[in-house]
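Memo to structure team: turn this sequence into structure tokens by end of day. - J.P.
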Amino acid sequence: MAETFRESLAAILTLVFILIAPYVQPPWILSVMILVFSLTLFLIRNTRYLALALVPVAILYGIGVLPLLVFSCTLAIMVTGELAFEWAPGRLESYLAYILAALAGCAMVMVYLSEYDPLVALFGVVVAVLLKAIVRERDDALMIEVLGIAMTMLLIDELHYQADMILIVAAVIIAFSFGYFSYRTRTADVSGLFSGALIGIILIVFADIRWFLVMLAFFIFGSVSTRYHFTDKERMGVEQAMGGARGYMNVFSNGAVAAAAAVLWGTTGNPLFAALFVGSVATAAADTLASEIGVTGGEPYLITNLSRVPVGTNGGVTLLGEIAAVAGAFLISALAYLLGIIPLIFVPAGILAGFIGTTIDSYIGAVFENRGIFGNAGTNFVATGGGGLAALFMGAALSLGALA
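Reply from structure team:
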């Protein structure tokens, strides 16, 4: 009871800082007040991590890095979200409560400050609940969450990107519906649900629904290929862990480059970033199909010296896997063309880029991953980046050739 009272009192006092923030100028004065408050909290056993979470945000606000809206929304998300989450810790409903409470907190802050930027609030809340799913078991979870919230909202604020409110609402509904479906069908865990939703929102808001459909196609191809001869894979000991359920590491390693491409395209309108997007997703699809289908194609050859290696060895390739890789890259590139994301001239570039990317993946797997230098997520990220850049450079060359 005493612990709950102390936490509630700390939350109320934190909300007070939001209320007085517009009137305490210059900002460093409020920053000093929060630091003193944090020192007091640190001396209380059960609020030490709340104190540590407040310190970096207070300093960043005091030196002028964080604008008032970002600072206030960060505190609002931290307080309202955390209190709502305690309603049913660890259950999916608690994450929903976190989202709704944090969004309500940000909405009240924007009304109070008469400053409206729904994208800043939205991305802050989505990143907050994602970090909650990832690090909630850590002692320093709250500090990581608060820094992640503040830095994400600062980035979105600095982009000065505007989107129609109807589009934002539609993006949230579509992306979270897809994430929830993935979770219910056990193709994604909780962190995969929220990271997938984040990627989906980025694609729809900064590009459009067609980019999301291409990413959705990759997800479907990947899920189907994961279940391809799954019993045989179990017998060989090379099946995906947790029945193929994807977590945040898998989502980001395959989708981070695509999301970055969408942001670049949305803020610049340069069509070459569409090629970057298609090349990265084509690589992800090619690599997934090559791995999941190719593993059933017999004893593989190590890509570096073509020696025979056991099934499941990183960097091992089979003829069936190479064919599947080309097919995956073709499907993604062709779909992107049919949806009008890239012109026909970019399709061969997307296919070749996908094959290049999956070859990079195999090479890194053989040289670095087998030695424990790289993990699977790092390998996938480098591969999708390599495939995306290959498509971008080929697209630039093709564009120059067409103009010549």
